[in-house]
Automatic annotation (TrEMBL):
PANTHER family: CONSERVED PROTEIN, GLYOXALASE-RELATED. It holds the Pfam family Glyoxalase. It comes from the Bacteria. Residues 12-126, 140-256 form the VOC domain. PROSITE patterns: VOC (PS51819). This is Glyoxalase/bleomycin resistance protein.
Length: 262
C-alpha cells in the first residue's frame, strides 16, 4: 500500500475527478471494477463526492448537469503550492481559465485550466487534503498521461508553468512520447496524438488505474454495464486495457511492471 498525508511536489498529478451524468450508476460501476465506496455527497461543497478505498480518498466525482457542454469523463489535477499564482502564470503562457482559483473549505484550493493544446487540467493547492491518499496499488491511480494534438505547445507549457523536466522516450514518425519529471522523478507521460494513427480524439488527460488482473477487471467492467474499447494487451510498461463506463467516461486499467510508471 502506498499512502500519503502530505502535499505532493508541484507539478505532480495528485487527484483525479469523474464528471458524470449518472452519479449513482458511476458509484456502482467503479465500486465493482475498482473496489471503491462513494461517500455521501458533501452539501458544503456543492454535492461533491469522494471515492474511498478502505477509508482513504482516491478520487472525486461531480455531477454533470450538462450546462458546460462537457462530456462525461475523467480529469487530472496537478499539485501547486499557490493555485492563484499558477493560474496567472498559465494565462501568460497561453492557457485559458475554466474555473478560477477558489478555496474549497479547509481542504485546499483548486482551479481548472485549458492548456494551450486544448486539454483540460486541474490544479490543487493542498491544505487538509493532500490529494489522493492511496495510489500505485490496485484500485487507485497508477499513472496519468497527456494525449495532445500540439505536442510542442503542451510540453513547453508544463515545463514553463509546472516546472517539469522532460525526458524523451521516442521521437519516431509513428510514436512520439516524453515523460514529465519533477525533481528528477517521473510523474506523467505525454503522447503526440498526431503521430499515433491508432489514437484518435482531442487533447485530453488520460487516467490509468491499477488493478490486480487486467483481463478480469475488463470482464467486470462489461458486466457492470461498461465496454472494452481496447482489449487487454501487454506493453513494455505492463498489461493494459481501455474501458468506458455506462455514460461514456473512459479510463485505462493497468497491471504495471515493476519499473513501469510512477
Amino acid at each position: 500500500m502506498t499512502t500519503r498525508d502530505t502535499a505532493f511536489a508541484a507539478g505532480t498529478p495528485c487527484w483525479v475527478e469523474l464528471l458524470t451524468s449518472d452519479p449513482e450508476g458511476a458509484a456502482a460501476f467503479y465500486g465493482q471494477v475498482l473496489g471503491w465506496t462513494a461517500r455521501p455527497p458533501a452539501p458544503e461543497h456543492g454535492g461533491y463526492v469522494d471515492f474511498v478505498l478502505g477509508d482513504r480518498p482516491v478520487a472525486g466525482m461531480v455531477t454533470n448537469t450538462g450546462e458546460s457542454g462537457a462530456p462525461d469523463g475523467w480529469s487530472t489535477y496537478l499539485a501547486t503550492p499557490d493555485a492563484a499564482a499558477t493560474v496567472a502564470a498559465a494565462q501568460r503562457a497561453g492557457a485559458t481559465v475554466a474555473v478560477p482559483a477558489v478555496t474549497v473549505g479547509t481542504l485546499g484550493a483548486m482551479a481548472v485550466l485549458t492548456d494551450p493544446s486544448g486539454a483540460a487540467v486541474g490544479l490543487w493547492q493542498a491544505a487538509e487534503l493532500p490529494g489522493f491518499t492511496r495510489y500505485n496499488e490496485p484500485g487507485s491511480v497508477v499513472w496519468d498521461e497527456l494525449h495532445t494534438r500540439d505536442f510542442d505547445a503542451a510540453t513547453a507549457f508544463y515545463r514553463d508553468v509546472l516546472g517539469w523536466g522532460l525526458q524523451p522516450l521516442s521521437d519516431s514518425a509513428e510514436f512520439r512520447y516524453s515523460q514529465g519529471q519533477v525533481d528528477g522523478r517521473t510523474v506523467a507521460g505525454v503522447l503526440d496524438l498526431t503521430r499515433s494513427p491508432s489514437t484518435a480524439g482531442l487533447s485530453r488527460w488520460v487516467v490509468y488505474f491499477a488493478v490486480a488482473d487486467v483481463d478480469a477487471a475488463a470482464e467486470t467492467a462489461v458486466g457492470a454495464g461498461g465496454r472494452i474499447l481496447q482489449p487487454p494487451r501487454d506493453t513494455p510498461f505492463g498489461r493494459i486495457t481501455e474501458i468506458e463506463d455506462a455514460t461514456g467516461a473512459t479510463a485505462m486499467l493497468s497491471v504495471p511492471t515493476a519499473d513501469g510508471g510512477e
